[in-house]
Amino acid sequence: MTALVLWYRVITPVRLNMRHRMRVEAVVEETPGIVSVLIGGRRLHRMGAEAGQFFRWRFKAPGMRFSSHPYSLSAAPRPDMLRITVKAIGDHTSRLRELRPGTKVWAEGPYGALTAQRRSRGKVLLVAGGVGITPMRALFETLPGAAGDITLLYRANSTQDLALWSELAKIAEERGARLMYAVNSPDGERPDISAESLRRKIPDVDRHDVFMCGPPG
Ligand SMILES: Cc1cc2nc3c(=O)[nH]c(=O)nc-3n(C[C@H](O)[C@H](O)[C@H](O)COP(=O)(O)OP(=O)(O)OC[C@H]3O[C@@H](n4cnc5c(N)ncnc54)[C@H](O)[C@@H]3O)c2cc1C
């Protein structure tokens, strides 16, 4: 047991991080309270990460060295760059905005099965709630499909909470994919995203694979 823990939690991450030498490239504010962290490194494609997956991230910065937190890739992984997008809700998530370019980054992963390999049908409905948009953004960009095959439904409390919306609009236009937002009305009423309402908006919804990510409820 100790050997397994040592192998997976210590030796494998050490080897991975020596090979890829990841560093913070930039921190970008997406909306108030949500930042993207761009992480550069060497031969990152050899990590074998796919859109939809996550890593446990550790940043060699004050107050962040000793804890690792899970964040999904919010864009398709590139050989020289990975990106995460994070909503500040506590200690670790709030400190990310203070990261300086050049900060060393350790990652453990990739983890997660929310990938294109789960596909069983031609059409896909991606449903994102709040910051659950992060893996969905990466999948929206990369899932194979012809024009009209991919739909993204993005639920947020308000339009100000919609992160990455301009990228999403661009991807939708380039791919001929469908992008639908579901935000509260100005008086706070929640939008109807019941099964019936989905069936009205997407009549062939029962012929779609559905990928979901977001908070409960
Ligand atoms: C597989 C996975 C992928 C994730 N990807 C992303 C991502 O791409 N972007 C992003 O912003 N966040 C993501 N998260 C959530 C993120 O990991 C947590 O928000 C973060 O670790 C909280 O750390 P903290 O120290 O800032 O807050 P803490 O002080 O640990 O928590 C603050 C408050 O948030 C609650 N909380 C903590 N974690 C979660 C959670 N996972 N779900 C709901 N409530 C929680 C706590 O109960 C507490 O009330 C992901 C979580 C998982 C499990």
UniProtKB/TrEMBL annotation:
The protein's GO terms of the molecular function aspect are: 2 iron, 2 sulfur cluster binding; flavin adenine dinucleotide binding; metal ion binding; oxidoreductase activity
Which cofactor(s) does the record list? FAD
Indicate yes or no for the key word Flavoprotein.
yes
Annotated FAD-binding FR-type domain ranges read 17-117
GO BP annotations listed = pyrimidine nucleotide biosynthetic process
CDD domains for this protein: FNR_like_3
Does this entry carry the keyword Flavoprotein?
yes
Q: Which UniProt keywords apply?
A: 2Fe-2S, FAD, Flavoprotein, Iron, Iron-sulfur, Metal-binding, Oxidoreductase
Q: Cross-referenced Pfam families, in alphabetical order?
A: FAD_binding_8, NAD_binding_1
- Record protein name field: Oxidoreductase FAD/NAD(P)-binding
Q: Which organism is it from?
A: Streptomyces griseoflavus Tu4000
